[in-house]
Sequence to fold (194 residues):
Amino acid sequence: MKIAAWIGVALGVYFVTTIFLGGPPDYLVSGILVLGAIQIGLLDRTPLPAGEGRMLKRGLALLFVTFAVWLETGGGAADKIPWQAYSEELTQAARKGGRPVMIDFTSKSCAPCLDLERKVFSNGRVAAAAEEFLPLRADMTEPTPAAAALAEKFHIEAFPTIVFIGGDGKERVNLRLVGYENARFFTERVQSAR
Fold:
């Protein structure tokens, strides 16, 4: 009964926050599962057969913790947007073809960048909304002169920064994203940038 209650609370929080906030805050659902694991595996004194069920309780607690870790690492979700390395030639070709461009300025040492990859770019709705765009990624991890020139050209001051350029070749400045945004709101941003 206690196991079902903890699972129910975690699922309830997930669904309510998804409906009203576009997704649960980081670590909330996994935190609930870890609390459930502590309560079931260490604090629960309900007697069970077979040695009072300590092994069963600890096994269930380990299962809760494993699922919490799986949730926070993205559950093996892969990036669904077919990013290409940024190049001026690709942006020029997109402009000539009237195709909008989405540029992800990212760094491998940036935690919000990794969260975008894991939680947003792996979302099917985000990928569907971004299909019209030429998705380009500018990896700014290494401080090279080319990276500095690109950052200066696009006025990049923080990571991640997502820049949307319309088919006319002009940036949609009001839709620029600096920092992390959940999948629901990012999908709306992408749809507005078309």
